[in-house]
């Protein structure tokens, strides 16, 4: 009976144009992120990509580390204000197909710290928010960093796991061969261990060059994010996507970042 009711609700919602990005995989959690699938066809629309690193209470002086309650407050605020979280892949597809939902936002985490799984993941789930995690593949499972099982679990609930190279080297300083190996090696790791393509790249330390971009393109990287500040739009170069770094700040400052 419950199942029948759920199925009917799903059919009605789908006929109304409610767009489901991912389904649950057996537990109660389900991300229904895009609340309305409207085609605004607005070439001026901009999408903010937020950049986080660590979420924990152990390092209050470090601006790359956000206290758990502050992160929670921010995700609650996004939920209360009807933001539609997209993975980076969904955001790029939305830009290419003129299908950007109202209040779009992309949440990204760099490096793959274990606190992303322990502290951020439960808060993201509570608020039906999805995120993209750029992991350094040689560090996966190495104490401070998430294990392959954690990454797989997050991926199965709609989170996106992407490429932050194998060693976190400053790519623009490397030889052509080493740049190739850094990106390709991470793609292979992600394919073999997580079952994803790893075709979106975050440049370690934000360092890139034309040579890096050419190699990324050769390796079928669809888009790459930097640490330059700004939002993305139709006009953005796919290999130079800007982001907005979130340091410890008040909720009023957070609101201002997105305005
Ligand atoms: Zn990094």
TrEMBL record:
Domain of life: Bacteria
Pfam families, per the entry: Polysacc_deac_1 (PF01522)
The UniProt record lists the keyword Transmembrane: no
Annotated NodB homology domain residues: 103-259
Compartments where found: Secreted
Record key words, sorted: Signal
Coiled coil (UniProt feature): none
PANTHER family: POLY-BETA-1,6-N-ACETYL-D-GLUCOSAMINE N-DEACETYLASE (PTHR34216:SF3), PTHR34216
Protein name from the UniProt record: Polysaccharide deacetylase family protein
